Amino acid sequence: MTEDDWPALEKWNSDPEVLYYSEGDDVSLYTPEMVRKIYRGVCANAFCFIIEADDEPVGECWLQRMNLDWILAKHPGKDCRRIDLVIGEKDYWGRGIGATVIELLTEFGFEHQKADMIFGCSIWDFNPGSQRIMEKAGYELYHRQKLEPGRKGNYELTMYLSKDKYFKDRD
Ligand SMILES: CC(C)(COP(=O)(O)OP(=O)(O)OC[C@H]1O[C@@H](n2cnc3c(N)ncnc32)[C@H](O)[C@@H]1OP(=O)(O)O)[C@@H](O)C(=O)NCCC(=O)NCCS
């Protein structure tokens, strides 16, 4: 991902249908200023990528240093990361790209970055596809949080994969 990617990132972050699935709260638009702030902030602690298909940008993803204190507190001294992704071009949903992206980011995280644990966070029950792509790559349930009434979903899931399980599954 580079500073040339703002048009695509702005398009995906102003599509209410994409944001319905990617955000836990009711967000229908991020302004261009907010988009720059979000991605510039994340990139300080993450490898951020554009997902391409048919030579076109179709989505974005990152492998980020874990930023949730409640997870870090449980694994002192461990290198914990998290994966997030959005396929912003809806014509490309359901074609196996999400599953491939998770596989590639996971390989990058464990084999290149030598992470100890990788997490998938903010997976909501109204987005079964996001849970399934993590499961396909060997991730397991780490935590299930019941959401307060009035929120968009009923549960928020956190999934994880350890280095040991990754290399065992791979062999
Ligand atoms: C969720 C998302 C990442 C999934 O990626 P995708 O490329 O569409 O999914 P894939 O084609 O790789 O599908 C992988 C698996 O999930 C299943 N799946 C995908 N979407 C699904 C859905 N809406 N309901 C149930 N299962 C679904 C597929 O059937 C497939 O399982 P299978 O191989 O056992 O048949 C993508 O649709 C997306 O980016 N959506 C909008 C933003 C978003 O939700 N981001 C994730 C936030 S956590």
From TrEMBL:
InterPro entries named among the record's database cross-references: Acyl_CoA_acyltransferase, GNAT_dom
SUPFAM superfamilies: Acyl-CoA N-acyltransferases (Nat)
Any one GO MF annotation of this record: acyltransferase activity, transferring groups other than amino-acyl groups
Boundaries of every N-acetyltransferase domain copy: 1-162
Name of protein: GNAT family N-acetyltransferase
